[in-house]
């Protein structure tokens, strides 16, 4: 379901912050006054940030610096692969994914699990009940991707902890 207002937040067991333009997403979060409600939810339920979503979850954002929820201890450089022309597809974990003006993960804390790397940098990371991919797996049409399977398992594990 599309989760748009705090009323919907209580109905979901995990969040996917999609790709898009992180600056625009930040503006909309501010305009609709969703920052505090989202922070509270993200502290309790699994979150997966995809591309711009991964930027919003990072602890530190560069190029340029911008505000983020700071729930995954990593530094990301926006548009780190270059411009739109440098967007590309790649096989990650045997699945074709798309890097679209993607960020590059430059630095990760020791307790981050690097689930996949590409061109020498981490592109899929997990930290506790949260994960981030700098690429889009949802544009490939032979679902489910290994990333979707992993996230569903993370959400199921958290639900079992909350309601054994
Ligand atoms: N370049 C975008 C940003 O910095 C991310 C692009 C995407 O989500 N595909 O926010």
Overview of the structural elements:
It is a single chain. The protein has a 5-stranded mixed beta sheet with strand order 1-2-10-9-8. The model has no long low-confidence stretch (mean pLDDT 95). Helices cover 29% and strands 30% of the residues. It has helices at residues 6-9, 22-31, 35-44, 52-57, 146-162; strands at 15-17, 47-50, 58-62, 72-77, 88-92, 95-99, 104-108, 113-118, 121-127, 130-133. It is an alpha/beta fold and 164 residues long. It has one domain (16-158): Rossmann fold, CATH 3.40.50.
Descriptors for this entry?
164 residues, alpha/beta, 29% helix, globular, binds glutamine
The small-molecule ligands in this entry are: glutamine
Q: Strand order within the widest sheet?
A: 1-2-10-9-8
The poorly predicted ranges are none
Counted beta strands: 10
**Major sheet description:** 5 strands, mixed
- Text of the CATH class: Alpha Beta
What is the chain-wise order of helices and strands? HEHHEHEEEEEEEEH
């Amino acid at each position: 379901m599309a989760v748009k207002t705090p009323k919907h937040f209580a109905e979901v067991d995990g969040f996917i912050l999609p790709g898009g333009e992180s600056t625009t997403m930040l503006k909309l979060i501010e305009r609709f006054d969703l920052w505090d409600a989202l922070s509270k939810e993200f502290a309790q339920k699994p979150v997966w940030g995809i591309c711009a979503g991964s930027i919003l979850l990072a602890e530190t954002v560069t190029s340029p610096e911008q505000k983020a929820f700071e729930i995954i201890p990593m530094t990301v450089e926006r548009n780190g692969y270059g411009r739109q022309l440098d967007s590309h597809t790649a096989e990650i974990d045997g699945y074709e994914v798309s890097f679209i003006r993607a960020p590059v993960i430059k630095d990760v804390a020791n307790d981050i699990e690097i689930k996949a790397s590409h061109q020498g940098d981490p592109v899929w990371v997990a930290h506790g009940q949260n994960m981030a991919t700098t690429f889009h797996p949802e544009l490939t049409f032979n679902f489910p991707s290994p990333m979707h399977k992993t996230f569903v398992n993370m959400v199921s594990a958290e639900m079992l902890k909350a309601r054994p």
